[in-house]
């Protein structure tokens, strides 16, 4: 392996064993390389193993077989080279914005003055200056997710993992957050892997869209997104954008229907 491609996924399989019930094969033979600084989105039917793969990449659960590596280093547990942003903001309600953003640095033992300086930089980057001493309950849903992204970026990971980060937001706020995320990514150039059910979100944000089959999740197609950067929300009204969304939807429509038929308790 070389270090010019940050994330290497090789032959990853995942089967969940259930007591007294049939096992569930979630992922089958996943091979994927995500280059340094690339933004990749994964779409597919519900239950196709997308979030499972993200948790394996983060080291939160093991693969049944296969390997994950960041650069030349194999992944076996969570580490500072990866940071996850979940669908729910998961902020600590008793801590202020600046304390939440600096929380990972505090766990790592960084001195208070240094971590607050770093936290302020990412609060500024996320467009939250002036809210440093607010608590999560004083913020809108979109603002809380900005704090969540800022907290993930503050630990300076090589890879940012996003698991449906805007799913809980209303449609208007979601679009604004997509644009904000692109603005932050444009300045940071982190490697990003995004899980989303929204095809238009995947096309708007990413350099490449990976389409998963229904369970067990397999890579059905990889679609390059050749829309010019930087992008703003107006690109969603362009013919090229609409054609890409339609192409990807046609790829997954059958898989979505199949995934619904495979749903289990």
TrEMBL record:
Keywords from the UniProt entry: ATP-binding, Nucleotide-binding, Transport
Q: Name one Pfam family in it.
A: ABC_tran
The UniProt record lists the ABC transporter domain at: 7-239
Q: Which InterPro entries match?
A: AAA+_ATPase (IPR003593), ABC_transporter-like_ATP-bd (IPR003439), ABC_transporter-like_CS (IPR017871), ABC_transporter_ATP-bind (IPR050166), P-loop_NTPase (IPR027417)
* Entry-linked SMART domains: AAA (SM00382)
GO terms assigned for molecular function? ATP binding; ATP hydrolysis activity
Family membership: Belongs to the ABC transporter superfamily.
Q: Which PANTHER family match?
A: ALIPHATIC SULFONATES IMPORT ATP-BINDING PROTEIN SSUB, TAURINE IMPORT ATP-BINDING PROTEIN-RELATED
Q: What is this protein called?
A: ABC transporter ATP-binding protein
Taxonomy, top ranks, is:
Bacteria, Pseudomonadati, Pseudomonadota, Alphaproteobacteria, Hyphomicrobiales
């Amino acid at each position: 392996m070389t270090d010019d491609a940050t994330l290497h996924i090789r032959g990853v399989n995942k089967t969940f064993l259930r007591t007294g019930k049939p096992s569930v094969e979630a992922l089958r033979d996943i091979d994927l390389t995500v280059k340094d600084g690339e933004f990749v989105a994964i779409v597919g039917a519900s239950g196709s193993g997308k979030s499972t793969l993200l948790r394996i990449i983060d080291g939160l659960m093991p693969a049944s077989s296969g390997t994950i590596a960041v650069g030349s280093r194999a992944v076996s547990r969570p580490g500072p080279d990866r940071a996850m942003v979940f669908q729910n903001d998961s902020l600590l309600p008793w801590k202020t914005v600046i304390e939440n953003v600096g929380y990972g640095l505090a766990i790592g033992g960084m001195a208070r003055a240094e971590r607050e300086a770093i936290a302020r930089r990412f609060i500024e980057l996320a467009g939250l200056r002036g809210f440093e001493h607010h608590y999560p309950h004083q913020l809108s849903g979109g603002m809380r997710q900005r704090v969540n992204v800022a907290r993930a970026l503050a630990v300076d990971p090589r890879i940012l993992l996003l698991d449906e980060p805007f799913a809980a937001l209303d449609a208007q706020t979601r679009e604004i957050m997509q644009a904000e995320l692109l603005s932050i990514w444009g300045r940071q150039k982190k490697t990003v892997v995004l899980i989303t059910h929204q095809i238009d979100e995947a096309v708007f944000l990413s350099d490449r869209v990976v389409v998963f089959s229904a369970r067990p999740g397999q890579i059905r197609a990889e679609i390059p997104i050749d829309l010019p950067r930087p992008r703003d929300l107006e690109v969603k009204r362009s013919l090229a954008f609409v054609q890409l969304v339609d192409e990807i939807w046609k790829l997954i429509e059958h898989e979505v229907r199949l995934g619904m038929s495979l749903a289990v308790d």
